[in-house]
Amino acid sequence: MNRITEIAKKNQDRISNRRKKKNDKREDKKERVENRRSFRLDKIKEVTAKAYAEAEKRKWLVFLIGALIAAYFIFKGMF
C-alpha cells in the first residue's frame, strides 16, 4: 500500500509541476505581449511628437520664406 501511495504522490507532484510550468509560461507570454504593446505605443507617441515638431519648424520656415518673398517684391517695386 505504501508503494502505491508513493507513486500516487509522485504523480501528483509531477502534475502540479507541469501545471506550474504551464502557468509560468502563460504569465511570461502575457508579460512579453504587454511589453511589446507598450513599446509600440511609446514608439507611436514618439513618432507623433516628432511629426508635430517638424510641422512647427516648417510652419515658421514657410512664414519666413513668405516674408522674404514679400520683401523682395516690395523693394523691387520701389526701384
What do you see in this structure?
The chain is mostly helical and 79 residues long. The chain is 97% helix and 0% strand. The chain has one helix and no strands. The longest helix has 77 residues. The radius of gyration is 34 Å and the shape is rod-shaped.
What is the count of β-strands? 0
Helix content: over 70%
Strand content: under 5%
Shape: rod-shaped
Q: Rg to the nearest angstrom?
A: 34 Å
Any low-confidence stretches, pLDDT <50, length ≥5?
none
Order of helices and strands: H
Figure out the total of helices.
1
Q: Distance N terminus to C terminus?
A: 117 Å
Oligomer: single chain
The overall pLDDT, averaged over residues, is: 91
Sheet with the most strands? none
Structural class: mainly alpha
Compact description:
The chain has 79 residues and is mainly α. The protein is 97% helix and 0% strand.
Can you give keywords for this protein?
0% strand; mainly alpha; 79 residues; rod-shaped
What's the helix and strand layout?
Elements: H1 2-78
